[in-house]
Design brief:
Length: 214
């Protein structure tokens, strides 16, 4: 004779199975939601140097703010506490700030990659350049000695953002601010006479600059 389960027991088993299936569905949904919100390494934006310009010694950020002239990321021309700015030639800094104020009206911000540097810091950058480029001759196209560098004398500033250097290439002469070297579009110095006469033709690189021959 065939036995049959009582109806109540059959109903209980069905309810338990439904609960288990429902719990599995909920857990799977929660896991999928968490996984979806995790950042994907393949979608992360790669870092790039400022404005797409290949990084060169003296034309990039090099660590935390200190008294040697190193600057942190995001330093603007209005950050008075930075030695890299505080030790700049006052006329250069004033011109930069006037230009930056007007550029802000066009949605452009001046970020400083380098300004005044101590002789020790300049020597450090030169050693790094020689190591990177393989010779003193090639390094000299990018980094001057402490005795000749306009950064050490407080007469030069490196602007990091491409939009800012583009703005300065179009408007900088009106503030006396000129690009000095073809190979360093970020490097600007003050030439007051250019307000009326325009900027002089840039040197190909620092090795063409008579000041570097001292």
């Amino acid at each position: 004779m065939t036995r049959t389960r009582p109806l109540a027991r059959t109903t209980t088993l069905r309810i338990r199975r439904l609960l288990v299936v429902g719990l599995v569905v909920v857990v799977a949904a929660m896991t999928a939601a968490i996984w979806y919100q995790l950042p994907s390494s393949s979608s992360a934006s790669p870092s790039s140097s400022s404005g797409g310009t290949p990084p060169a010694p003296g034309g990039e950020n090099r660590g935390a703010l200190d008294e040697s002239g190193r600057v942190p990321d995001g330093l603007t021309v209005f950050d008075d506490e930075a030695a890299a700015l505080a030790n700049l030639d006052r006329a250069l800094l004033d011109a930069l700030r006037r230009a930056a104020t007007d550029a802000a009206g066009d949605g452009v911000e001046f970020i400083v990659n380098s300004g005044w540097r101590s002789p020790e810091y300049q020597d450090e950058l030169l050693r790094e350049a020689i190591s990177e480029y393989g010779s003193e001759e090639e390094a000299a196209r990018w980094v001057a000695t402490a005795a000749t560098s306009p950064h050490v004398s407080g007469e030069a500033v490196d602007i990091g953002d491409f939009d800012a250097t583009l703005w300065l290439s179009e408007h900088g002469a009106g503030y006396g601010l000129c690009q000095i070297y073809d190979n360093e579009p970020w490097h600007y110095e003050l030439r007051p006479a250019t307000v009326e006469l325009g900027c002089p033709v840039p040197y190909t690189d620092p090795t063409d600059d008579p000041r570097m021959q001292q």
